[in-house]
Amino acid sequence: MRGLLIVISGASGTGKGTVCKKLLADLPKIAYSISATTRNPRPGEIDGKEYYFLSVAEFKSWISEEKFLEYAEVYGNFYGTPLNKIEERLSRGEDILLEIDVQGALNVKKKCPEGVYIFLLPPSLNELKNRIEGRGTENPESLARRLKNAVAEIKIGLEYDYVVVNDDINAAAEQIKAILTAERLKVARNTDKFEFEEDFK
Ligand code: ADP
Ligand code: 5GP
Fold it and tell me: Which of 39, 61, 135, 144 lies 20 to 30 Å (CA to CA) from residue 124?
């Protein structure tokens, strides 16, 4: 079976990174698509692990070399999904997880409508603010920008296929696993199983 292209989005601070880490730990067969970004690394982030950290000039040359499946400007920085043989990997049966913003996800959805588009919601806007503040990674300007965009980003979640509320992290991860199980059982992904020969004995 062709692999699943799994796309997860949600407002900054919802817990996308945390949920994705849990999914990758629990489901070792899923590969994480490492994005490129021009934002500065946060403490502990390693180039080539969380992101490929590029200068704006490097990012622009990746664009002109057509190295991206999609890219977008998010909160004043560029972010993009490297093509990185995604098509070959899917056709080999590998599942690939993209954690990208709503603009990028809608662009991917146009190119890959068979992907699985999951929107993660926070339990409330107050909890979103607490989480992003609690993470301690944003300066006041970046924090304000992320919170200001949150409501508009959440509205775009209506374009996705599935919604998961990240109240309890384990419950959210289990719900996403259930979505993936159901997706793998779709008739459209299993037409080969219907090819029986009439060879009764
Ligand atoms: P995002 O990737 O969506 O910006 P993160 O995964 O960095 O969000 O999570 C933001 C903060 O919220 C982190 O400090 C994380 O530990 C915390 N967090 C994530 N999920 C939950 C949850 N279900 N309950 C409580 N805190 C959470
Ligand atoms: P952060 O700076 O918090 O890591 O990410 C900020 C936003 O950029 C998040 O909404 C995240 O999903 C998004 N993002 C991360 N990688 C990509 C990418 O490759 N493409 C797009 N379009 N958005 C991305």
Answer: 39
